[in-house]
Amino acid sequence: MVDFFQNHVIIHNITHMEVKQMAYVISDQCISCGACEADCPVSAISQGDDRYVIDPATCIDCGACEATCPVGAPHAE
């Protein structure tokens, strides 16, 4: 049920709301230069076994990694 009252919307009976954040991922094009890790404002990127990886729980979807990567490895999931 939705009520409209003086330019405000009141939504009743919401029991659960889930917000899914889109995180970036790093493809196998990664050359492990580390440029993305240095530019990540929330330190969501770390060195993995064969390439850098992005922690989806920490990533804020800002795109800094994509902008700095010389080979275009990071991309929105």
Structural notes for this entry:
This protein has 77 residues and is an alpha+beta fold. The chain has helices at residues 35-39, 64-68; strands at 2-5, 8-11, 24-26, 45-47, 52-54, 74-76. A two-stranded antiparallel sheet has the order 1-2. A two-stranded antiparallel sheet has the order 3-6. A hairpin with a 4-residue loop joins strand 4 and strand 5 (52-54). The longest helix is centred in the middle third of the chain and has 5 residues, at 35-39. The chain starts with a strand and ends with a strand.
Q: How many helical elements?
A: 2
User: What are the segments in which pLDDT stays under 50 over at least 5 consecutive residues?
Assistant: 1-5
**Main sheet?**
2 strands, antiparallel
Alpha carbon gyration radius: 18 Å
Helix and strand string, N-terminal first?
A: EEEHEEHE
Strand content: 25-35%
The tally of strands reads 6
Could you outline the blueprint of secondary structure elements for this entry?
Blueprint: E1 2-5, E2 8-11, E3 24-26, H1 35-39, E4 45-47, E5 52-54, H2 64-68, E6 74-76
Antiparallel strand pairs: 1-2, 3-6, 4-5
What keywords describe this structure?
77 residues, alpha+beta, two-stranded antiparallel sheet, 2 helices, 6 strands, globular, disordered N terminus
Brief overview:
The protein has helices at 35-39, 64-68, and strands at 2-5, 8-11, 24-26, 45-47, 52-54, 74-76.
